[in-house]
Structures are given as structure tokens and as C-alpha cells.
Amino acid sequence: MMFWILLPVTLSLVSFLGTWTIYGLAFTYKHVCPLTDWSGANYCRGNNTEDCCFVPTISSSGMYAPESSLFTATINAATFLFLLFCVFHHAHILEKNVCQAMLSKFALVFGVVSAFGAFAAGNCNPGYLTLLHFFGAAVSFLCVCLYAALLTALTAKCVLTGYERFLYPLRLTSTVTQSILTTCYTVLFVQDNYFYNHLSAVFEWMLTVNMELFELSYAVEFCFFSSFMISNLLKKREEEKHLMLT
């Protein structure tokens, strides 16, 4: 059913439009420095947080009102849609390629953990709950890389659409790019120099856009999805429970 194509499309659009709108608001209110400004002349240093701006990461863009409310709403909405995406993709694998069920389950676990990490990061303001925010963000970034790698492996092993010969190289490129950008972001983020911090922010925006394009590619799979697959997934869970009881 073509209706299901809305899930990956909506997930990508909510993430993309939400995060860039948050950055736009933060930039308008001078809460973050411009992504194009590499000088760091007005960068907040030490305890000085007045009349200055923060490195334009996604987290710092959602630190202050009014963009903080939109930041939380965007992360919550994207997390919910991502959870649906993970579960429904797993249901698709079980319906079309049950022999890859174990690999799909591993992917599902990483996807769910990534979603909970993002939920924690989105609901823990980095200005007040810094440790919890960055812990959730770290878990989310790591697990989403592993999730993308497993989904790419499933693309190589499963025939869901017939277009896998085109989708696989695209997703493989996206997965490798995601891993490289995440590593660069992590290494540069912990540096003290403003230039490296600013560069890490650029890498963070790049990796989020890359992941959104990766998710958008699954619009092809969801063209072949149907509501029956969800009921079939629930039925299989009930059968597994029955076997466990007996």
C-alpha cells in the first residue's frame, strides 16, 4: 500500500525541518554562532554566557527558550516515528525473508536503544542535565550507526522490493559515511579549540542529514508494505508466547 510510504518520508521531514528550524531560531536569538563563522570571536568561554554565542551543534541550538520547546517536541516526534520504522521494517523482514529474522532482531534492538538514547537527549536539556543529555546522545549516535550497518547487511541478503541492486550500494555508501562522520564528530567535539569544536558541529549536521537520506531511501520498501504484515507479526508473537507456556 502506497500509504505506508508516508512513514519514512515523514520521519525524514520531521527530523530535517525540525532541527534546521531549531537552528534558525537559535541563530536569530544569537544563542548559537553562525555555521559560516569560523572565527570564534563571539564564542562563549568559561563562565561567560552573556552577550556571546555557543558552538552551533544541534544540542546547543535547543538549549534556550523558545527553541528548547521545539527541540524537545521534534526529538520526541522523530523518536516515536523511528520506533515505528524499526518495528515495521522488522515485520517486513519476517514476512518476506524469515530466514534473516535473527539479524533483523539484532537490528531492531539497536534501533530501539538508539531511539531511547535520542529520547533521553531530547528531554534532558544540555544546559541543566548535561551528563544525561550527552550520554543519551552518545548512545543514540553509536547505536544508529550499528543499526544502519545491519539494515545495509539486510539489504544485501533480503529481497523485499527487487531494487536491492540499486539500493545496496547507496546504503553502503551512506553507512560508511555515517560511521566516518560520527567518528570525526566525536574526536573533534572533545577538543578545547573553537575551530575543532565548530568543525565537529559541521560534521554533526552532516551526519544527521546523511541519516535522514538513509531513512528516506526506505520509502521504496514501504511501497511494498501492508497492514497484514503487522497483524502477522503480532500473530507470530502470540504463537511464541504459547510455545513458551507449553
Automatic annotation (TrEMBL):
Protein keywords: Membrane, Transmembrane, Transmembrane helix
Q: What are the CWH43-like N-terminal domain coordinates in residue numbering?
A: 4-222
What is its subcellular localisation?
Endomembrane system
Give the stretches traversing the membrane: 70-91, 103-122, 128-154, 175-196, 216-234
Its membrane topology, per UniProt? Multi-pass membrane protein
Q: Name one GO cellular component term.
A: endomembrane system
Q: Name one Pfam family in it.
A: Frag1
Concerning InterPro entries, the annotation shows: CWH43_N (IPR019402), DRAM/TMEM150_Autophagy_Mod (IPR050911)
GO BP field: protein localization to plasma membrane
| Protein family according to the UniProt entry | Belongs to the DRAM/TMEM150 family.
Q: What name goes with this protein?
A: Transmembrane protein 150A
Source organism per entry reads Austrofundulus limnaeus (Annual killifish)
